[in-house]
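Q: What does the assembly look like in three dimensions?
Context provided by user:
Components: two
Sequences:
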Amino acid sequence: MLPLTLQHVTKVYGNTTAVDNINIEVGRGEIYALLGANGAGKTTTMRMVLGLINPDSGHIQYEGKDYSQDILKILGYLPEERGLYPKVRVSDQILYLAQLKGMKKKDADHKLKVWLEKFSVPEYYNKKVEELSKGNQQKIQFIAAIIHNPRILVLDEAFSGLDPVNVELLKETVKQLRDEGASIVFSTHRMEHVEELCRNVCILHKSRTVLTGNLKEIKSSLPKERIMLNTSEEVSGLSDIDGIDKVTRHESGYELHMTNPEAAGHVLRKAMEQSAVQRFEVMEPTLNEIFIKAVGGDLNE
Amino acid sequence: MNNLSAVLGFTIRNKFRSKAFIITTIILALLVSVGVNVPYLITLFKSDKAINIGMLEDGTNVGEQLKLYYDAAEKKEVNLLVYPNEDSVEASELMLKEQIADGEIEGYLMATEEISFGFPIIMYKSEDTMDYGTMNKLQNGLQQVKMGMVVQELKLSKEQLDTLSAPVQIDKVQISATGGAGSIGDGKSEEQIAVATGMVYVLIIMLFMGVMISGQLIATEITAEKSSRVMEILITSVSPLTQMFGKIIGMFIVALSQITLLVAAIAINLMLPHNRDAISELNINLSDIDPMLLVYAIFFYLTGYFLYATMFAAVGSLVSRTEDLGQAILPITMLTMVGYFIAIYGIQDPNSMLVQITSFIPFFSPFIMFLRLGTTDPAVWEVVLSFAILLVSILGIGWLASRIYRAGVLMYGKRPSFKELMRAMRAYRA
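A: Here is the predicted structure of the complete assembly.
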């Protein structure tokens, strides 16, 4: 039984379709990336998963069951816009939220201390939220989302606004939760995080799914269009090769874009004629490229 | 159930810890303490010193008679100073004005040439505008002087004079003609009526304040949760219904403990010996208060609170920013104000049609049926019907409010129009 499935889920607001026929399946111990430009429907999808709004059609199932108040206890949510009581002490509000999720106060207190220790901010236990910096508030928000060990975790823009050290810290935590079996729906604009964390992705564009599936499979199924070439001497005439439409000079070599995969051989031959080759690689497309192609290409139409 | 107690606990704890709440409670306690001490303070400042009034000597012996009358009084209220006449009326008045300016007298009396029923029309001149206390004393004195003069002419005996001047006595007793549910019982004396009316007055003000203050607090808290976006986390943790009623009940407990504290402050102040004397001097006997009236007060506070609290909660859920809240709750505030003013007006005229009708309208009945119970004698069926309408309305409005709340808490941006709200409410049927 999959922890989370969305089948043909559609949400319409008035005349605009916010989410059009989306299908998602998230397995145990998996991080699923929900990608898309601003306003593509990511947050609406997540809110439907959380039961904040009802889909107009389609089904959302949690461990094979429909949404109910009981499901709330296994859900964890980190909203895009942070929300905590500014004037309430960290311990008070986290324990309150944990109790609402069905935890005993004592257990919640213990876990809160463990997490604060892990994020190396144990001194925040008795501080008011408004006294903390934004990044630190986010850590507290993160703890609020995961303190009850949710089996389904929704992270909307989890790492935005954090410094690299804290991004690493939270990323490790997310990985740890994944390894413990949580099913995580994850949205971000940082493609490198997705490449690092996610098995499956779904790219939304203007409320429609434009690309979905296993990230590795998507990459290998797409034509390889980029060549990295490092040589000791300069190489001339690369742009004259048939099927090469763009040559960019970098400090240590060339980046070429080809429209025809056969051009790769010609490039290597031409380079070897003129110089010693230090690096020649036909690159898989990066998620960044895939995303821009799926979303940005459409924008130019 | 567990969640409800968690919401309750959190609401109560945060309120009791908030500095603003503690400070307001202390200020309110101080205010009511001062209020209770007002009768005592008045006796403290009330000067027993007689007022100095000037009077010109004229042909008549009104001045001397008047002086005799005042001087004979057990407690001298007016000290009449008789001044000799100057050459002209103008000169006399000038002299008297100087006396006023020097603070020797407050004002002066002058007999005019005009005669009405055998007694000159008297003019009182002073810098003050109408001071009814002084006017009464002067009127009484002059009346006695006039009477004395007439009596002398008629040559009446002392007994005859006493019989003539003794006032007619009316003892007022309020009774219940129908044996209704009011607080009249077997009839009430004037003092009891006064105490009951005063009590109704005080309780209506407390009812109004209690409903308004806690209602606004509920709305503010909900809007604050919305604007700080905690709401999204809450909604994914606990059902909106539990959330809303947890908040309402929690705030009720907070308000109740605040009121208990204030009542305790009043009680302690009333117990103080100096206040006991001051109050009994005012002819107020606190044991005249009908305990049923207090029971009704508690009941109407409860129902009024829940009726308005659900409305405030619903409105609070629709507003995204605390700045916009004041405007949004204005209609509800107006509604309570209307009820309050009808009640205050109704104290003077509790049998008027307006009061009778509004005592059945749920938004007003907590104030107005209470007023009728305290001051008149509504029939039992009227009270039962009013309660029934009120309870049904609470259920209806509570249900509607929870639907609005469910839809409202997730609507951000500008305040939703009625149409948008209806659409959103349909969307959250599940």
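Follow-up: Chain B touches chain A through 27 residues (CB under 8 Å).
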